[in-house]
Write the structure tokens for this entry.
Amino acid sequence: MNRRRFLHVSLGGLVGGSTWFSSIARAAAESPPKRACILLWMSGGPSQIDTFDPKPGHANGGPFQAIETQTPGIRLAEHLPKLAQRSQHLAIIRSMTSKEGDHIRATQYVRTGYRPGSPIDYPFIGPAIGKEQMSSELVVPPCVSIGGFRGFGSSIGFGAGYLGPRYAPLSVGENAVAPASANIAAYLQVANMRPAEGTDEEYLGRIARVRQANERFAKHRPDAVLASRQAAYDSAAKFISPEVKDLFDVSKEPAPLRERYGNTMFGQGCLLARRLVEFGVPFVEVSLNGVANRSVFGWDTHQQNFPQVQALSEVLDAGWSTLIDDLKDRGLLETTTIVWLGEFGRTPRINGSQGRDHFPDAWSAVLGGGGIVGGQVIGSTGDDGARIKDRPVTIPDLLATLVKAMKIDPSKTNMSNVGRPIQIVDTIGKPIQECLA
Amino acid sequence: MRATLCGMILAGIGIGSIVADDSPAVELSRWIDDHLAETWKQKQIQPAQKASDAEWVRRVHLDLIGRIPSLLEVQEFVGSTDPDKDTKLVANLVERGAFADIWAGNILRGLLPETETSDEPNSYGLVEPIKGWLREMLVDHRPYDQIARELIACSFPLSPSERSISPASFYAIKKSKPEELASATSRYFLGVRIECAQCHDHPFAQWKRKEFWQFAAFYAGLVRSNQADGFQYPQRDEKSVREIKMEGTDELIPAAFLGEADRPIPSDEFARNALAEWIVDGTNPFFAKAAVNRVWYHLFGIGIVDPIDDMDSHNPPSHPEILDRLAEEFRVHGYDLRWLIRAIAGTRAYRLSSQAPEGIEIPPRSFARMIVRTMTFDQYSRSLAEVSGQQEESFAQRIEQVGNLKGAEPYRSDTSISQALLEMNGWPANFVLRQPNQLRLEKSLDGKAFSFNEAVTLLYQATLSRPPSEEELEVAKLLVKETSGIREHPFVELVRRLTNSRSMPMSPQVPMHSDKRDLLWVLINSSEFRMNH
């Protein structure tokens, strides 16, 4: 190989690269998402009584008032005023019930739909849904997790499990704790998105050379692992393209809209979620871990529940309500299902530290948007909130409803790591028919 | 004390002296080869070429000691003219401490796949006791049936100090629950998935629901400390309890051996002792087959029965005669794992290239070509450590960042985008590239002067275990010419230039070409490095 040819190879990589880039934008424009889901994940287990199932007048109700909503007869706790104005887009389930009261176990259960403690490596429902709805041209993984907290306990419930790395969630702003008044856009970063140093040309040059070496190596080696690795590399290489770089940059959005979402990891995360859904990502998760410097389990309010829930509710109210409006303005609300969910609820009884403890018996979750009939409440708890009065809904029921709302068959199976086909949602899960549009 | 002793013994052993009982292993290798050759002939399969020394030396290091060979190990092997060098290398590798580490990991991953996919058992301190125990059993050359027996018949109660290196944490990870212990035991040691029948009979599967609960009943005497669902050691074992209530029914099912329900269980011993003895008994139809199939899988990336833990009538072996013969020989040779590995690694099939002949398609289960496998996380981090001269632990500590590098079925694992980004821009690449002063190859060759071609060859050998092709040399030449213009150079300096160490700034007159630092990055990021082939 002479020098000219060598340069040609390098440039070939570059030119090829720019073709990839323009094809990304085209793919996004030509094949709009079939359906998408945005999961608003409330890490720590939110208090249902102080949000979606208020008990005014009862000792368990605490200091918060209940406020009227757009929907006659439905009332929310007072720190969700913007959501109250958008209740027609919410199906509030007040009768969630589970048996898992430990953070890690409950998190696994809620996020996979299967009870923990099995050698089966169950996937997070995000990749499972993403796998069904992704377009083959999608450069970004079919599931993106924004502002998630990882780093202790089990990884089950966060990864792609037996679906394999191809469907593994892409993390944005993982473990990031942004101080108040920070430039949040800078915290919403994809890990290892670009090389630490050097120019794009150098980087693309190296990638082209790896590709060349891999092609040579894969010749006469018809193994699937090689093709998979090359495909992942090709996608990863596109992350330095202006399109993908911009995709993750929420500062490209107009300032007033950004303000409406709220200058918080969660608020800007919701905005990023909208950008990703628009781009064709079928499943996006946005974590609300806490306000100001709290990185995880912010809803775990064993002490001083009320000021914390108030602060969290304000962040939640701004981000979520703006997300509804924004999706609606862009004609995406009808194809985008929104889920509000934590690992469990909190005790109706207020403990001695003005806190509420873990409570898996009777708690709330909310569905809305695509495929969901809003403006209704499913199930109820008694006056003290301690027991479900009617229509208990289990985790598999909720996930079956979500999957159905996205027009996916919950009984579809994937081959598991133990060689047994496993349904997307456990057979015991029955969709809440009255929720489904 | 024990570790020191072993170290001393190992240090005193040279190549060759430990291969006392080698001829039967060679005999078995040849028999397997003849048998495979016959099947290839019947099915008109043209096998791949024999692998080059470089390809094979890399593979055998990865499989037996979990990392690529060092530069010197490559050179020593490739340069040797000893006709028995393959056999001697295998015999040497299986005696290394790293062999015990890696194979303890292989056993653990099979027995407790959840320890790979979840950090939870480790966070409760439950992984190290059993892993340490397995490592010790392997270091001490304990036969495989003894490993099985001690694990299955492990007696309780155990004091906390007795738990520190012990198979008992297997019970704790399985929450001391009979049904979970039964599933794991049958899956690992018998290669059967009876737990599929836990809830109901399956029309086509061999095992019925009742048989699952009969198996689980062997563990029914274990007393759990409380009813909570978490990890817990058994408090004690009740000798008299050997029946269990079938889930969701009131039916009490007594313990019975799988497929041999009439065989009596002595009443004067613990049921698990009887189970252990039945499992390792020479007449057990599953035990030895399951074991040899697992070893075969670790060396070929695919089992003779595959999936390896599904030895059911609906999932027949690709080569039943080989499976039977291996199982029989394994038993006759006292369940000696090293002997079995020597026999399988000594086959010509294991010596075949992963490259198919031009225009020829080779069915993967024919073993007429080595399939390409993704390195396990362990192999990958140990190999990076080898190239960079860093401690392997410094890579392993970053485990939390690479959840999806791990998995219960690592060899066939595909690659995620996050993982590709991590490998390209994260710690694996940076760790190697940023600290070229500590490159191990540099350490071993410091002070010598090398020609350009020699230096590039060394880089290739240190990473891909092979020399560069003519074309690759030409490409490398262009890079370095442009950056330094120096053809004769001490190797250390050249490596620094190739890897663009920050501590070695280029003179401003020398134009910086994009590829000047890229050769090592490209080598580390290539599939050829990342895969075991």
Observations:
- Chain B touches chain A through 68 residues (CB under 8 Å).
